[in-house]
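Subject: mismatched residue count in predicted assembly?

I count 586 residues in my input, but I want to confirm that the predicted structure covers every chain. Input:
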Amino acid sequence: MKSEPMALLCHLGALTRHLTPNITRSRLHSVSSPVPIQVRPYTQNLGRPVQIYRSRSTDPYLNLSIEHHLLQRSHPESTVLFLYTNRPSVVIGRNQNPWLEVNLRALRQGLPQSAAAAPTLVRRRSGGGTVFHDAGNANWSIICPPPAFDRDKHAEMVVRALRGLAGAAARGGKVRVNKRHDIVMDLDVEVGGVETFKVSGSAYKLTRTRSLHHGTCLLSSENLGRVGGLLRSPAEGFIKARGVESVRSPIRNVGLGGDEFADAVVGEFRKMYGDADGREVVVGEEEALANEEVVKGLRELTSPDWIFGQTPLFTFSTHPTEDDPRERPGITHRLPEEFRAQFTVRHGEIQAADLAGLEYHYSVDDASQDVVLSNALVEQRLYYIEDWRSALRQASPVPVDVEGVGEWLNYMF
Amino acid sequence: MATIARCLRVVRPTAYSAVLRNSASRTIGARPFSMTATNAVRKYTKEHEWIDLSGDMKTGVLGISEYAAKQLGDIVYVELPEEGKEVQAGDAIGAVESVKSAADINAPISCKITQINLVLEEKPGTINQVAEDDSHGGGWIAKVQITEEGLKDFEQLLDAKAYEEYTAEEGEH
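Triage response: the counts match. Full output below for your records.
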């Protein structure tokens, strides 16, 4: 069972460069902790009215799959808390565009000033915008029945947890839930007045029978200053996307450790739901991977068809169009003077392509060659194109100069 | 429709409920431009989807109710169903996003999706404007072919009056 996801992920690695190449299902470290050793699988807990889980895994795909499994399988009347921390990841919302939200090339190169592996690209199932996760960021998730659903209720719960802790208080920061359902911290600044920073974002997934609210919390991330470049795409000025765009906010750590935060959130959760004596269940990787439904969800989340193919309709064009009349950014790459390109992409698949002005090695009828080349790109999946230079070469009926244009398109996508 | 209709914090649309109660026509959302056969019947699910059954009882049009659209807030994206898909009542067939929430749309009855409303791809807010309009520019989500099982499912649904009562009751919590 353990090797199957590994083999799957290695295969996927060949298809897309954007997943971390060395995802490992690490063996469980023995952790000395006060939590009693469990002999029952965590799934036996799903019928209880109040459930608390903590994940041992730092794999974002697995954690989201465990979360989804809890959403689907926990008792319909129950209330569930799930806490997890992910290795460095860029997490986009269900209806977002990775080419627009993320600098995919920079992502592959990894965080600046860091020798660590490149962050993982993840698309979650809930709505909302793009966030960065790492060891200094905590994720909390509450699942409850629809009548009890409220977008702020559990964010307020986390605020109570934060207010009770030394770190936040010591920094003199006041935490609260804002109108966008984010948790923000108001800091007094030297010059007088107050500056507000986001410390937590929220997102939701609503099914017929259950409601899920999950959010982040910046505790002590080392990467705050490093992620800006990853979350700015060079293609932004050229893409017009349907779907959901991120709203950027200045961010700050609250200055807390992972365990103290988690313990405080569990404490507030118990106060709310009266489960003072209930056990906390720790979910290990092996145990989660032994569950068929978790693995099914994992397969979905790791598939390029989900990560890239779930992207809403968008157009890309080098020049202003009726659909997108904005002035385009300057292009520093060397491109043929007459070069123009326009793509319509739906579900990650090129539905229409219109390239013009490419330079062919011998000229028969440039315009009609452009048409043939363009048509050859249609129905190709954008996320399967590893290198635009070879894609263009293959699409062209006649040898064509691919370096300039190919390089630039690689930079865009 | 994943319901947040019973969400306590949402601004209660009391004016809206009042309009419903006082409305002369009991059907929610008059359809002056409707292209449905005049003897089409409309019913609702408790999860706030609606479905129009055509006169010949073989086809239908579905969407989410005005009530649901109001509760959801500004819809910024609609994940449309897959054409050709065959579904059971209650299956998730798509989703809408509003206020960072991805909310499932569920099939009101067993049916086969034959056509989807591409207007919503460009203008998801159409649902907020005309959620129950099944004509060309309306907020309908899909056209469907109805099976035997679907007809049985249809009988279990709420008619316009029952739905109105149901939502009024919810609004009072």
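Residues 1-33 of chain A have pLDDT under 50 and may be disordered. Marking this ticket as 'not a bug'.
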